[in-house]
Amino acid sequence: MSTSLPEHSIDRLEDRLARLPLRERKKLKTRRAIQDHALRLFTEQGYDETTVEQIAAAAEISPSTFFRYFPTKEDVVVTDEYDPVMAELFRDQPPELSPIDALRAVFREILPLLFREDWETATTRMRLTAEVPALRARSWESMREGTHAVLKEITAERVGRPADDPEVDAFAWAVLGVMQATMYRWLDGMPLEDLPGLVDHNLEFLGRGCPL
């Protein structure tokens, strides 16, 4: 599967960032710089061995500034900016598409975006999350508070149900389960270039009711 990024995906992301107020763009730049330094230190010397003070020093900020951007040390690994992008792309899908087909279209845009713009960071974050128990625990909480909540909201809008509908909730968790299964297949040695295709296959499989 080609990993080239569609030009309209680049334009959409750049337009979205350009619409942010200057203050927000500066905050995003600082957040990314902190995360880059943190991931580098975690890779070089280990997660447990790296302190917030060391990350702050590398990023040339104070520890108190670090905590303004990331509530915990774990959050510097599990946090990204892709949930709002996913929501925007999902809402732009043709209304006749089912939630699964709309999500498949979204991931066909987001995953090449990761390959082109952010894959080294994303893979480092996934490996750390799989290997560090504290990160696995925080990732689950962050997923429930972030991606799961976004999935419920955008799915509920598409099907005309409330976000707290039990079936909408179950659907959102099922999608997250598909994503987790794909991540662990990659961590077990699946070739990187096969990941987008497996995500699409697993979502299609979910859409067919998981027949075995």
TrEMBL record:
Gene3D superfamilies documented for this protein: Homeodomain-like (1.10.10.60), Tetracycline Repressor, domain 2 (1.10.357.10)
Residue stretches making up the HTH tetR-type domain: 28-88
Keyword Acyltransferase set for record: no
Key words of the record: DNA-binding, Transcription, Transcription regulation
Xref: InterPro entries: Homeodomain-like_sf, HTH-type_TetR-like_transc_reg, HTH_TetR, MftR_C, Tet_transcr_reg_TetR-rel_C_sf
DNA-binding region in chain numbering: 51-70
Highest taxon above the source species: Bacteria
PROSITE patterns named in the record: HTH_TETR_2 (PS50977)
UniProt xrefs under Pfam families: TetR_C_14, TetR_N
PANTHER family recorded: HTH-TYPE TRANSCRIPTIONAL REGULATOR BETI, HTH-TYPE TRANSCRIPTIONAL REGULATOR RUTR
Protein's name in the database: TetR family transcriptional regulator
Organism whose genome encodes this protein: Actinomadura fibrosa
